[in-house]
């Protein structure tokens, strides 16, 4: 079924249901960044595969709103379709709602599926639309009758994440949650974010590509907990183990009926993750609306997780080294692998580790101009051949039982344009400035961001994405709440404490030419005790050489040179024990002091 036919069928359904505009977002009933295929309706309808975007269909217009990370990708994927690209000015703002208010006549009805929008989102939609004389309708999933080849809900089994990796038992984690519930005087805590359900129960799944989660809700009571999921997904051994912690299994669909029974209870919900459909099943007067304590607990890595993370970084570095050595051998033999083939080779090298599970996201392998597409994903049939000239942007990560990785390197392959060195060095200087930062505990994410941008700004350059995001432990590679950003959103307003793992990834992108990004993961650790409290620093966890052949040396100051040389000394010291003679030679050359 082509794109125009899908829109035609949708518009007929809208007319039948008296809906003037229909919103189709990216998320699922759990507000997942990457939903299971069953809920990938926006991709099916529009053809745009980016992880952030909202489609709106009226009788006269079909539009796709996305932010600057996806402009180039959206332009390519929407070409030839009926959808018009609308570029969001501010990544976190629902500017499409303003468009509806300006475009639709008074009295028009805007419909969306309340299951797939959060309570907070629907509250904002309702207030804004009604102020403009429009109505918001809970019209359900309008794609249900026209999406014929829709994927069913996944049935892959759930498995244990052992305590030797997790560092805490599920009983310990649930006890911590119940202490927080007691402070709020909550009878129940209704958990809907998939990563929070998996983390607090020390369980993992494979319902979402690259994210080790499974589709479920969790209701935590004062003594008993109820896990709502497809019951066949839970092996008998895990069922018995959960029962020891007073956790019972119920069918996924029974969450609606259970929510109805809580109308007279005090129920803690996180309005940013609980879907609006469940929220209206609960009594508004009984809701205790507050950020999830599990989100915060999960963000602070314990000592066991920290220990395993350091090991995971070592094995990940060896996999990347083997991949790049393979690429060099291919070039030496006159062979030019495609970007897709390099991504496949990377998976092959990572999978040699016994604790490897899968990639933490689809690798971004952008050769020359493709590197300027911030979230570029090489396809088998269309990806470019990588030749020994220009630069390669390689952004990838692995999911291991003992940690999640996310690393970007920009690699020189041959001749480059002169200005690339200046741009690269400005990115590197910003990366180092952030990595070296010492700061008081409680510093917010928004306060760090300028450190990474300052050297690019000196050149009149900038980048349109955030500088860093939280990272899970054998969990989602994009993990709230913290991050380095320019906006006072959740990431920007979160205070940094010991144990938070965050990406440090400034970059620069020149459309039609190249992309530059340097990314390591940093862990906030104690530094010293000052007269006004504790100061923290960042421990750089990622271990892999940073390409020095792209540096404009006269731009580097002494402290930045010292940091880079010290970093490379550590990289070589930590990795050389895993290397054979040839690998040691390769590594030593790339870790030599400048």
Question: What report would you give on this structure?
Answer:
The protein is α+β, with helices and mostly antiparallel strands. It has 3 domains: 3-138, Creatinase/prolidase N-terminal domain (Creatine Amidinohydrolase, Chain A, domain 1, 3-Layer(aba) Sandwich), CATH 3.40.350.10; 159-299, Creatinase/prolidase N-terminal domain (Creatine Amidinohydrolase, Chain A, domain 1); 303-590, Alpha-Beta Complex (Creatine Amidinohydrolase), CATH 3.90.230. 35% of the residues lie in helices and 20% in strands. The protein has 19 helices and 28 strands. The strands form 8 sheets. A 6-stranded mixed β-sheet has the order 4-3-2-1-5-6, with helices on both faces. It has a 6-stranded mixed β-sheet with strand order 12-11-10-8-13-14. Strand 22 and strand 23 (479-484) form a beta hairpin. The protein is globular and about 65 Å long. The mean pLDDT is 96.
Intertermini distance? 58 Å
CATH class bucket of the largest domain:
Alpha Beta
Shape: globular
Radius of gyration over C-alpha positions, nearest whole angstrom: 24 Å
How many structurally independent domains?
3
Task: Give the total of beta strands.
Answer: 28
Structural class: alpha+beta
CATH topology of the largest domain: Creatine Amidinohydrolase
Q: Which superfamily, in CATH terms, is the homologous superfamily of the largest domain?
A: Creatinase/methionine aminopeptidase superfamily
**Helix count, DSSP H or I runs of 4 or more residues:** 19
Largest sheet at a glance? 6 strands, mixed
Q: What is the CATH architecture descriptor of the largest domain?
A: Alpha-Beta Complex
| Percent in helix | 25-40%
């Amino acid at each position: 079924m082509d794109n125009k036919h899908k829109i035609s069928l949708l518009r007929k359904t809208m007319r039948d249901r008296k809906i003037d505009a229909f919103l189709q977002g990216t998320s699922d009933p759990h507000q997942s960044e990457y939903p299971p295929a069953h809920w990938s309706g926006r991709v099916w309808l529009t053809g745009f595969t980016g992880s952030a975007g909202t489609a709106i269909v009226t009788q006269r217009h079909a539009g796709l709103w996305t932010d600057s990370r996806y402009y180039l990708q959206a332009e390519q994927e929407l070409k030839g379709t009926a959808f018009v690209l609308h570029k969001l000015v501010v990544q976190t703002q629902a500017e499409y709602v303003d468009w509806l208010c300006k475009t639709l006549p008074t009295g028009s009805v805007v419909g969306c599926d309340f299951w797939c929008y959060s309570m907070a989102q629907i509250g904002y939609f309702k207030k804004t639309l009604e102020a403009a004389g429009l109505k918001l309708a809970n019209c359900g999933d309008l794609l249900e009758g026209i999406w014929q080849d829709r994927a069913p809900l996944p049935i892959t089994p759930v498995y244990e994440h052992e305590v030797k990796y997790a560092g805490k038992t599920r009983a310990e984690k649930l006890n911590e949650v119940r202490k927080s519930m007691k402070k709020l005087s909550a009878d129940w805590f209704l958990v809907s974010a998939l990563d929070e359900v998996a983390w607090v129960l020390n369980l993992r799944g494979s319902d979402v590509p690259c994210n080790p989660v499974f589709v479920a809700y969790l209701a935590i009571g004062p003594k008993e907990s109820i896990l709502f999921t497809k019951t066949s997904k839970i092996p008998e051994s895990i069922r018995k183990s959960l029962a020891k912690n007073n956790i019972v299994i119920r069918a996924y669909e029974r969450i609606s009926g259970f929510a109805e029974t809580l109308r007279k209870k005090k129920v803690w919900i996180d309005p940013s993750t609980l879907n609006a459909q469940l929220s209206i099943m609960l009594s508004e007067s009984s809701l205790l609306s507050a950020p999830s304590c599990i989100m915060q607990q999960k963000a602070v890595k314990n000592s066991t997780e920290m220990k395993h993370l350091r090991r995971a970084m070592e094995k990940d570095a060896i996999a990347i080294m083997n991949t790049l050595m393979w690429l060099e051998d291919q070039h030496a033999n006159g062979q030019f692998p495609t970007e897709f083939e390099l991504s496949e080779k990377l998976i092959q090298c990572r999978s040699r580790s016994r604790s490897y599970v899968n990639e933490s996201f689809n690798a971004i392998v952008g050769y020359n101009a493709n590197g300027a597409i911030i979230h570029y994903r090489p396809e088998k049939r269309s990806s470019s051949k990588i030749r020994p000239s220009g630069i390669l942007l390689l952004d990838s990560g692995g999911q291991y039982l003992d940690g999640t990785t996310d690393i970007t390197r920009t690699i020189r392959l041959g001749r480059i344009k002169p200005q690339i060195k200046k741009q690269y060095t400005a990115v590197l200087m910003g990366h180092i400035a952030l990595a070296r930062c010492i700061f008081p505990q409680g510093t917010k994410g928004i306060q760090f961001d300028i450190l990474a941008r300052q050297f690019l700004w000196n050149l009149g350059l900038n980048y349109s994405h955030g500088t860093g995001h939280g990272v899970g432990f054998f969990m989602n590679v994009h993990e709230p709440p913290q991050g380095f950003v320019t906006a006072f959103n959740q990431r920007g307003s979160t205070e940094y404490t010991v144990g938070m793992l965050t990406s440090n990834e400034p970059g620069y992108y020149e459309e039609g030419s190249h992309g530059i990004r340097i990314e390591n993961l940093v862990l906030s650790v104690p530094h010293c005790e000052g007269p006004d409290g504790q100061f923290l620093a960042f421990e750089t966890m990622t271990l892999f050489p940073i390409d020095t052949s792209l540096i404009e040396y006269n731009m580097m100051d002494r402290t930045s040179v010292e940091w880079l040389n010290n970093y490379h000394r550590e990289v070589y010291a930590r990795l050389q024990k895993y290397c054979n003679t040839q690998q040691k030679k390769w590594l030593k050359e790339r870790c030599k002091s400048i």
